[in-house]
Specification:
alpha/beta, seven-stranded mixed β-sheet, two-stranded antiparallel sheet, 6 helices, 9 strands, about 30% helix, binds guanosine-5'-triphosphate, magnesium
């Protein structure tokens, strides 16, 4: 049994949102900003939530917010920064663009914890989800090296670690949908309301 106090939630909310054209975390679904859905899924499972973003508007949420240690380096930098700030070995890392995410999916990642795996990521519909994943704190040193070598591909960094995938069945496919474009936003609204 993993206790809440042993787990930190890290939400990546930086980046350019170039495909959407506006910060994805502030998009509204049923009167709630996208980022709040990530917060709500994490809350039952973690002792602290850290938001990684330059946007001070997130401070209204009343959570700890830090900025990226390495600027403009993508999710790998966000994860590294979050792991540096975290006080726990276990860390659930989420993006801010997955408004159908549930605690149940995150619990499955926790249930899959073993001694060997450094990263445990969700896999849905044959797609692995490095931003619906559990990272152990020491991964930060590996990611720091990649950033120093200017390697920004998260999937490359993950492959250098001991990782495993938790394959979710069809019932959870909607829960892992992420939004990058206005068209995908419409699909999420359809999935939410129907
Ligand atoms: N802290 C932090 N988060 C990031 C960074 N880049 C992306 N993210 C977050 O990572 C998640 C996935 O981001 P992407 O959709 O791949 O990238 P994006 O920059 O937001 O959007 P595009 O410009 O359309 O690729 C989102 O939650 C982003 O907020 C970054 O450099 N720092």
């Amino acid at each position: 049994m993993i206790e809440k106090k042993s787990v930190t939630g890290i939400i990546l909310a930086g980046g350019k949102s170039s495909r959407m054209g506006s910060d994805k975390g502030f998009l509204m679904l049923n009167n709630k900003p996208f980022i709040q859905y990530s917060i709500d899924a994490l809350t039952p499972l973690v002792s602290e939530i850290i938001i990684i973003s330059d946007a001070s508007e997130y401070d209204d949420l009343g959570l700890k917010r830090i900025t990226d240690i390495t600027k403009d380096a993508g999710p790998i930098s966000g994860i590294y920064s979050g792991l540096e700030a975290s006080k726990t070995e276990l860390n659930l890392v989420l993006s801010c663009d997955i408004p159908l995410i549930t605690s149940e999916v995150l619990q499955k990642l926790i249930n899959a914890i073993d001694d060997e795996s450094e990263i445990i990521q969700a896999e849905s519909n044959d797609k692995t989800m490095p931003l619906i994943a559990l990272y152990k704190k020491p991964v930060k040193d590996r990611f720091k090296n990649f950033l120093e070598q200017d390697e920004r591909r998260l999937r490359v960094a993950i492959k250098s670690c001991n990782y495993k995938n938790v394959v979710l069945d069809e019932a959870y496919q909607n829960a892992t949908l992420n939004v990058n474009t206005k068209e995908e936003f419409k699909q999420i609204e359809d999935a939410y309301y129907h």
